[in-house]
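User: Structure with NAP, tokens only please.
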Amino acid sequence: MQTLDENSVALVFGANGGLGLAFARQLLAESRVGLVWAATRDPDSPSLQDLNRLYGERLRPVAVDITDEASIAALADEVAGHTPQLHLLINAFGFLHDEADGIRPEKRLEDLSAAGLERNFAVNAMAPALIARHFIGLISHQQRAVFASLSARVGSIDDNRLGGWYAYRMSKAAQNMFTRGLAIECARRAKRLICLALHPGTTDTALSAPFQSRVPAGKLFTPDFAASQLLSVIDRSDIEDSGGFFAWDGAAIPW
Ligand SMILES: NC(=O)c1ccc[n+]([C@@H]2O[C@H](COP(=O)([O-])OP(=O)(O)OC[C@H]3O[C@@H](n4cnc5c(N)ncnc54)[C@H](OP(=O)(O)O)[C@@H]3O)[C@@H](O)[C@H]2O)c1
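Assistant:
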């Protein structure tokens, strides 16, 4: 991998999610990666314990609530106390629905609620920005590094032909705007940091589960396929790509 030289260090947020776990697993399988931090609300999950048994100290599961700035800041301090540099930071968390709280994508205006907007914005828009705010010192250095946020094509304003899904679309559009702004600032202060917004394609995870029936047969990706595609996109990306929005196949998505 271009991003990951020998002994490079990666950090995956949302490491128990469908895509986050696939990223962690694939990075660990890459021998050049010296250490993978797996940031999640549940660092003791059976999936991460299985990976720990396989990879030992190359995997560090750590607790974080990405909707709590103090928790993000504490994690940044913990990581900085152990390693001076990260070479890859992936935001693989996201929010779309919560059946228990009655939050689901809106079909029409009357479905909008403050609670739905708040949950979508807290996870999808605010968290990537606060993570960048607290981790910038770890990802801006003399070596190539990538800050990658999983976004969604439905966050593209240009691409919106269907309407609906207001809160998710709005929060992903806000996330994309943050990624673009970060790339512009980093071109001045962190010249080797590449900032990317990435669309995995519709992938078989808890987030997409209630909406998979509308996916054409054979078009639903496995988390392993989507993660491997996105790791290739990250690998091929260059500083000229910073601030861009790319799909799983490397194609640029209009903002
Ligand atoms: N699946 C798709 O079809 C699809 C399509 C387009 C875009 N995406 C995007 O891809 C990303 C990953 O989604 P996914 O499909 O892998 O979803 P997922 O399986 O539901 O995983 C999402 C993860 O987000 C994390 N998360 C949510 N709230 C959190 C909080 N307060 N604190 C810490 N972590 C929190 C959780 O990770 P932990 O359990 O580790 O805490 C959760 O497992 C999202 O940004 C999503 O919008 C997915």
